[in-house]
Amino acid sequence: MTVLETYEKRPKPLAQRLAIFAVVAVLVIWSAAGVEYKGIAAKGSEVAYGIVHGLLHPMTSMIFTTATDGVPYLIMQTIAIAVLGTLIGGLLAIPISFVASGNIVPKWVARIFRALILMIRTIPSLVWALVWIRVTGPGPFCGVLTQSVCSIGMISKMYITAIEDLDTGILESLDASGCNAFQKIRCGVIPQLSASFVSTIIYRFDINLKDASTLGIVGAGGIGAALNQAIASRRWVIVGAFLWALILLVLIIEYFSTKIRARLARGKA
Known about the structure:
It is built from 12 helices and no strands. The chain is an all-alpha fold. It has one domain (44-266): MetI-like fold (Orthogonal Bundle), CATH 1.10.3720.10.
């Protein structure tokens, strides 16, 4: 077959591309039709000005205080909620992930637990918070329970991917060497999974730290509740103090989490 004949028989995806473009265009038009723009709210400019004013003139007395309604206490409470929620969720996700991995257990068992994980991931964190508030009442403990459950959903999915990518050749070699089950787990499984598991935990902690601020709005503890009250009462200088604390906290956590994940993934600092 000549080069010209091969070229003439090349795939011609023009029709497929036009069909995809048409589908996307229809979805965009349909979505835009469902959005009703009513303009900016009457007090929208006032709120925007207040937030900018608060960021430029934050109340420093809220930042340098040890009171329970001050920024340091609320920030530490937010971090504590994220740490506990991530650790509890990460630990509970380990056994769930193993029984949801098709290369570890029978396929039908894995499907059952994957359906459970999917159910957890389907429900938004705010809905979980509203559920747990009815059980435990408002407060930091509700935030910890909410983040633990939400962490199980995401972390388990990442764990399953790592477990199913295990190099079985290493386990076969250890088995041929006469290693028992504990030795195979310690020398063949844990070294392959530890870096991936730790990286997933760090990534989820980064997410939980941001979610902890949002969950506080519905009464799940942390700085979110105080921030929501300050915005509702239009105390913009206090809002500015809270926002600066959150911005600095997220930047610091993002910097260190990125460094740690890069070191785990590539062996670089």
